[in-house]
Amino acid sequence: MLGHGGGNVLGDPRVRMTRPTEFTFTFSHSAPEDKKLKEDLRKDTHYIFDNMSWRKIIDKDSTSVDDLRDIVSDRWSRPRNPFDEVFPGIFLGDASAALCMSILVREGIGFVVNAADSCSRCLAGRNCGTCVRTRQAFYNVGNIQLKAIAALDEVGFPLYWYFNEATEFIDNALATGGKVLVHCREGISRSATLVIAYLMMKKGMTAKEAVRLVRNKRQIYPNDGFLLQLCDLDLRLRGQRKY
User: ∠ CA(202), CA(82), CA(99), 5° rounding?
Assistant: First the structure.
């Protein structure tokens, strides 16, 4: 049985070995597979992303994407603040918070997780409009440590590849008594998913509990693909994954 603590809770050693700069097998909105997926999601069918393909979950008692979407969509509006403290020592925010040194220093933030680091398109000079280009040199003046993750806010992007390293970075930051800002472009999808995964992996929360806790502190809305990956993580942590 998989559980909290050491080791790779995602159960696949390739999770630690694979370091993509850009997801190359995402579904296109016009692809038949994507249309079928969206149709099944509307019917409350349980799917998870595994071994580069979507697979159906037979366990009907598992948390579904609809369950999590119901939590985040309730009276949803755009976040009012550039950042919010969603758990003691963990701030969830957008690009403006990450790029404002005065805010970081004022809040005593010593660690930053950028979940929207430059993708290959941005590195090639073609600005995608969703990345936040930050470098450690920018944060050195505030003695802030940076963890950069080049994630795309797309339904097929395997953000779970980064759950372990982001969780360890956040956990180590809090263990030293530090505060950490986890951000992406808007602070509602990529960064929110990483914070939720941390709460599940290190604080023993279920997906519903973690999503509800974060949602009560900040308006978030991870895309359906990320919600599905959290559903899968929920099953893995509870040792109840079935096909």
Answer: 90
| Cβ(166)–Cβ(180) below 8 Å | no
Whole-model pTM: value is 0.75
Look up 119 and say whether it is catalytic: no
- Enumerate domains of the chain plus CATH numbers: 14-238 (3.90.190.10)
Distance CA 79, CA 85 (A): 13
Task: At 82, list the tokens.
Answer: 């550039």
Tokens for 141?
């003046």
- Which among 119, 122, 131, 184 is annotated as catalytic? 184
**CA count, 13 A, side-chain hemisphere, 200:** 30
Specify the 3-state DSSP secondary structure of 237. helix
Q: What percent of the chain has pLDDT over 70?
A: 67
Q: What is the pLDDT of residues 197-219, one digit of tens each?
A: 999 999 999 999 999 999 999 99
Residue whose pair of structure tokens reads 């919600």 in the numeric block: 227
